[in-house]
Amino acid sequence: MTAETVIRRAERDDLPALLAIYNHYIVHTPATFYIKPHSLAQRRAWLDTFAPTGRHQCFVAAKGGEAVGWACSGRFKEREAYDISVETSVYLAPGEQGKGLGRRLYQALFEALAREDVHRAFGGITQPNEASVGLHLAMGFTHVGTYREVGRKFGRFWDVAWYGRAVG
User: Is the pLDDT of residue 1 over 70?
Assistant: First the structure.
């Protein structure tokens, strides 16, 4: 019997699993432009930016009690007029893609954000990444532009395509 996957708010006990997932993407993929693996303290500071209400929230997919992915909304830009916009992210543990978890996580996140003072959500996707583009399109995002060769990782330049959608 396989454990049921539940979607819930992120908790401190999730930190080791969330750290392992994110460090996988840092070390092995261009999905994030961090170069060096993060520490538990760095992930703790990241988790501390989220709250049960408000614009910045984080949900996890947990299987057998262990986090296997997350979706979050964070600050889009520093200037105050941008506060009604958020940047969203979804990361899944290796082997958990293609099971509908990204969609379930985004559904929980956007249901929560619909009750907050959030107008637009944006996601930046390093190219190529057909799976992430497909998820964002399925969730109502549209392509709003591409930053060409905006990051360098693994000895090459990467484009980042930006997708946006209304919230609420």
Answer: no
Structure tokens at 7: 């979607």
Q: What is the pLDDT of residue 2?
A: 58
- pLDDT band at residue 168 under the 50/70/90 scheme: confident
**DSSP at 130:** H
Half-sphere exposure of residue 114, counting CA atoms within 13 Å on the CB side? Answer: 7
- For the residues 16-40, what does the mean pLDDT come to? 98
Q: At what angle do helices 130-138 and 101-113 cross, to 10 degrees?
A: 40
Rounded CA gap, 99 and 49, in Å?
A: 28
Domains detected in the chain: 5-119 (3.40.630.30)
Distance of alpha carbon 101 from alpha carbon 92, whole angstroms: 8
Write the pLDDT tens digit of every residue in 130-161.
999 999 999 999 999 999 999 999 999 999 99
- What is the side-by-side strand order in the sheet with 58-63? 5-9, 58-63, 66-75, 85-92, 120-126, 156-166, 142-153
Pair 118, 151: CB distance under 8 Å = no
